[in-house]
Amino acid sequence: MSDRTTPTTGSDVELIGLIAASIRRERERCGLSMAELARRAGIAKSTLSQLESGAGNPSVETLWALGVALNVPFSRLVDPPRPMVKVIRAGEGPVTHSARADYAATVLSSCPPNARRDIYRIEAQPGETRASDPHMPGTVEHVMIGAGRALVGPTEDPVELGPGDYVSYPGDAPHIFRALAADTLAVIVMEHI
Amino acid sequence: MSDRTTPTTGSDVELIGLIAASIRRERERCGLSMAELARRAGIAKSTLSQLESGAGNPSVETLWALGVALNVPFSRLVDPPRPMVKVIRAGEGPVTHSARADYAATVLSSCPPNARRDIYRIEAQPGETRASDPHMPGTVEHVMIGAGRALVGPTEDPVELGPGDYVSYPGDAPHIFRALAADTLAVIVMEHI
DNA sequence: TCCATTCGTTCGCCTTGACGAACCATGGGC
DNA sequence: GCCCATGGTTCGTCAAGGCGAACGAATGGA
Fold first, then answer.
1. What is the pTM of this model?
2. CA dihedral in degrees (B170, B147, A91, B190; nearest 10)?
3. Model ipTM over 0.85
4. For chain A, which residues make up each domain, given as ranges?
5. What's the pLDDT at B175?
6. Of the candidates B6, B73, B123, which has its C-beta nearest A164's C-beta?
7. CB–CB of A12 and B121 under 8 A?
8. Which candidate in B26, B51, B60 is best for mutational testing of the A interface (most A CBs within 10 A)?
9. How far is CA A109 from the centre of its chain?
């Protein structure tokens, strides 16, 4: 159950309600009217109306067409987001299975489904704070420090990290990355849900 | 076009053909008969048969039910996979936008859509090779070294990496991770397409 | 004020998805 | 040989999705 796009509880009603909400959300995010979106997607305006009102159980072609028109990866139309801040210090965290004297693997983030992630390498020197404007709603960032030290996280509550430390936090709120040591090396995984 | 789950070319026929193939593939992977799968998904055997034969345009509820029964993330039923090996040495790679003297961000992997990724921290000491059996088809692994050195990649053609080096490779083929230096630190992003 | 435009919902019609039962295989067991 | 179980396809029916047109509401000029 850790990773389901397919909740065993995905009972009909919730699913279509979810889709309804998603379509409306994405449509308004694009600033499109029903008529316009329907036209672009090549479906009837009435169909779209019914879908957004929570009635019906669209066919995949219909949903696909909407995905194309809205320019979103389709699966975003069927499951939602949600973020949080999590810190795992070097040495902390449950070590998975094949733990041996010379090899330790720690699960830092267990697959939120249908996310798109960009992976960045960060090389930073101590200096002024690098503040990021919030990204798309639902975005989550994961940071692990490879070397050096850095102050990372939500602007109002950043965390100081050293080698091996990991943090994740909402990317759709203001956040910062400030190197505290020379040649600080980090990986940032930016996850657009 | 870099990331589309929603190819502008997603013309009807291809889509349903794709779904047909996906369903059959996943069903056989589970070793289920049509009758059994239909029963678990709560749909008619005939419906399933038609879907797998490429006829029809299932509703999302139907597809969802199949996703639940097959225990796959639903989106896997609508788009396919494909991998590759890519190495980006420390210092290499296009540096994105806000490049400053004290901060450099390099895009290592640009968002394949609908992927689920687990993030692992690896702490390893020099020792015997850690070989992984191939995971699910379509899996891709991304590795960045934070400290130390390691031999990483496909078993038959691994790559030696140092701090800041990055590699990605198919996870559905045998691959290894062997630390070459003490206190080697790495991040592995395991991506289940 | 009146007309025109746009946005969204509601209303019949027709198509089509989903269902169950009946229908061909195939393959053991006896 | 027979019989029965199992995997898959085809057929006829019914409900539901998708469509276009018609409708009411809100906005904005002239």
1. 0.52
2. -10
3. no
4. 12-77, 86-192
5. 84
6. B123
7. no
8. B60
9. 12
